[in-house]
Amino acid sequence: MLQANSPLPLYRQLYRHLRQAIEDGEFEVGQRLPSERNLAANHGISRLTARRAFDILKQEGYVRAYQGKGCFVAHSASRIYDGTAVEGFNAATIRRGMTPTSRVLSCSVVPANGEVASHLHIEKSEETVRIRRLRLSDDVPIALDTAYLPYPLCEPLLDIDLEKQSLYRSLELQLHIRLAYANQTIHTTLGRDNDLPLLGLRAPAAVLQLHRETFDSQGHVIEYLDAVYRDDQYDLYQIPNRIEV
Fold first, then answer.
1. Fold annotation for 79-238
2. Which phi and psi (to 5°) does residue 20 adopt?
3. Are 231 and 188 in contact (CB under 8 A)?
4. Which terminus of the chain faces fewer neighbouring Cβ atoms within 10 Å, N or C?
5. What is the mean pLDDT of residues 49-77?
6. pTM (two decimals)
């Protein structure tokens, strides 16, 4: 309940109330929040006050607004897995008794932005090999991943057909890089509008977001992976968690 005599403004109280509800899982990712009109009526406040609370939630990434549809919960808390081994998508799909395929959407050399540079432990704007793929299981789109690898160490990947050979197998057999373990985070989030059609989804739709740093046996980061999985096709605990090329 909001307190009119509190030194904390009403919009900040409402913001905290909604944020806590999201963090506690009372609202799931992809769930539509009550409208400004309903919140105003339920809490005895103005729509402007409710809008200011929503504005803070949007700025902090808790919710995302869609024109004519309202505001939807945008992400859940992350689950962190440090020091685990990593299993490639192909091996994981085969283990589940299904047939994996990949479509390479792009494979090029690009400068690292701040986020990628931080994960690969390189300088911003240093060149990286970026590989963007749509991953399918029994011809159903399951995941969309973008892998960043250090250049020129991984330059030979540009000439390998990664629709026919797995990335991890190529790293080990062609580049003689022995993969050892990974650190990764996974959380549920609303999918990006440009990604959803490739996965056969329409906005707003929840997806599993995975960020992973893959290390070689010397402790060097070889890959930074930014991937989204359809959460209606892939369970959180089925996402790869061991090495297998």
1. Chorismate lyase (3.40.1410)
2. -65, -40
3. yes
4. N
5. 89
6. 0.78
Query: Do the domains spanning 10-73 and 79-238 agree at the CATH topology level?
Result: no
Q: Which two tokens stand for residue 239?
A: 């996402």
Contact (Cβ atoms closer than 8 angstroms) between residue 170 and residue 131: no
* Cα pseudo-dihedral 121, 127, 128, 131, rounded to 10: 150
The residue ranges of every structural domain in the chain are: 10-73, 79-238
CA dist 144 → 140, 209, 230 (Å): 12, 10, 9
What is the enclosing helix (H) or strand (E) of 39? Answer: helix 36-43
What's the pLDDT band for 244 if we cut at 50, 70, 90? very low
Q: Could you tell me if 112 and 129 are in contact, meaning their C-beta atoms sit under 8 angstroms apart?
A: no
DSSP for residue 7 = S
The CATH number of the domain covering residues in 10-73? 1.10.10.10
pLDDT at 131 exceeding the cut of 70: yes
Nearest CA-CA partner of 197 in 99, 65, 76, 105: 105
Tell me if 199 sits within 8 A of 91, measured CB to CB: no
Residue 172: Cβ-neighbour burial (10 angstroms; 0-12, 13-18, 19+):
middle
Q: Count helices and strands (H / E) in the chain.
A: 6, 9
The amino acid present at 218, given as its one-letter code, is Q
The pLDDT tens digits of the residues spanning 133-175 come to 999 999 999 999 999 999 999 999 999 999 999 999 999 999 9
| Paired strand residues for 107 | 131
Mean pLDDT, residues 32-44 taken together: 92
Q: Per DSSP, what are the bridge partners of residue 8?
A: none
